[in-house]
Amino acid sequence: MKAVAKIGGVLAVIGIVIGLKFWNKSGADADVRKEAHDAIKALPCYAANGPYLDGLVDKFHAQAFDASYTMGGRRRSSKFDEKLYLRTLLSNMSGQARADGKAELADDLRDASAGIR
């Protein structure tokens, strides 16, 4: 019976640790989404395309965030690659703008993505 209680305790601790990692990822996700919206507002093309660009950020944020966020392990912390996130986000936004018939906006977004080093 003691062994079952110990196993149960260990599983509870593991569950808490995993839960905290996902909670931290969730918090980072929300912060990065907000910062992405703020960054997009700084683009010259935002004035004429604000609501459309905000919609594209919302559409492609999760994909870009998942590609650029690495959860930590036992001895390493989580990592977020900001440049990869922005390049992925802007590239996806550019592709969608082109598909939507907004070639000039797509070029502006592609150029912004290419400028990230």
Describe this structure in words.
With 117 residues, this protein is mainly alpha-helical. The protein has helices at residues 2-41, 46-68, 82-99, 103-114, and strands at 69-70, 79-80. The chain has one domain (2-114). Helices cover 79% and strands 3% of the residues. A two-stranded antiparallel sheet has the order 1-2. A hairpin with an 8-residue loop joins strand 1 (69-70) and strand 2. Mean pLDDT is 79; it is low at 1-23.
Short structural summary:
With 117 residues, this protein is mainly alpha-helical.
Keywords:
single chain; 117 residues; mainly alpha; two-stranded antiparallel ribbon; 2 strands
Shape: elongated
In terms of DSSP E residues, the strand content is: under 5%
Elements, N to C (H/E): HHEEHH
Low-confidence stretches: 1-23
Number of helices: 4
Describe the biggest sheet?
2 strands, antiparallel
Question: Structural class of the helix and strand makeup?
Answer: mainly alpha
- Count every beta strand, where a strand is a DSSP E run of 2 or more residues: 2
Question: Between the first and last Cα atoms, what is the distance in angstroms?
Answer: 58 Å
Radius of gyration: 19 Å
Please tell me the overall pLDDT: 79
Counting structural domains, the number is 1
Percent helix, as a range, is: over 70%
Strand order of the largest sheet: 1-2
